[in-house]
């Protein structure tokens, strides 16, 4: 079902601050930046070897990232796992009784299909599944 870790998502109050710090401190440049309007976030991704770190900044006070930041501040928001067939995986998890945030795939950053699994079913960890 799971092929590999796709990325680690980190919620931040200011992408500009992160971009400046990573560029100045570590010499890193984002692989891409994008706004995902239906999720109310701006995204900047850094590819480091085979790993990707995705920084998420809310674009609206009612963004899920805004709510996360209010409760916890900057920090790890989710772990994304790449799967072969997202809709089939979601159906399998639902049939096994796992709680899903998204019962159907939607489009995320880079145009990939994504869906989130409820933290209550995964020991308090928000899991994103993605398919390219």
Word description of this protein:
The protein is α+β, with helices and mostly antiparallel strands. The protein is built from three helices and eight strands, in the order βαβββαβαβββ. The protein has a single domain, classed as 2,3-Dihydroxybiphenyl 1,2-Dioxygenase, domain 1. Helices cover 23% and strands 39% of the residues. A hairpin with a 2-residue loop joins β3 and β4. The chain is globular.
Q: Would you summarize the structure shown here?
A:
Helices cover 23% and strands 39% of the residues. The chain is of the alpha+beta class. It is globular, with a radius of gyration of 15 Å.
List keywords for this structure.
132 residues, alpha+beta, 2,3-Dihydroxybiphenyl 1,2-Dioxygenase, domain 1, eight-stranded mixed sheet, 8 strands, globular
Secondary structure category? alpha+beta
What is the CATH C level class, in words?
A: Alpha Beta
Q: Which fold does the CATH topology refer to?
A: 2,3-Dihydroxybiphenyl 1,2-Dioxygenase, domain 1
Largest sheet: 8 strands, mixed
């Amino acid at each position: 079902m799971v092929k590999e870790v796709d990325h680690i998502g980190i919620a931040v109050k200011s992408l500009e601050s992160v971009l400046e710090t990573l560029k100045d401190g570590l010499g890193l440049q984002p692989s891409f930046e994008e706004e995902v309007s239906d999720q109310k976030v701006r995204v900047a991704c850094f590819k480091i070897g085979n790993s990707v770190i995705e920084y998420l900044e809310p674009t609206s006070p009612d963004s899920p990232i805004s709510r996360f930041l209010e409760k916890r501040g900057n920090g790890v928001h989710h772990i994304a796992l790449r799967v072969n067939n997202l809709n089939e995986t979601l159906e399998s998890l639902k049939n096994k009784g796992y709680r899903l945030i998204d019962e159907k795939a939607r489009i995320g950053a880079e145009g990939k299909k994504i869906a989130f699994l409820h933290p209550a079913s995964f020991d308090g960890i928000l899991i994103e599944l993605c398919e390219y």
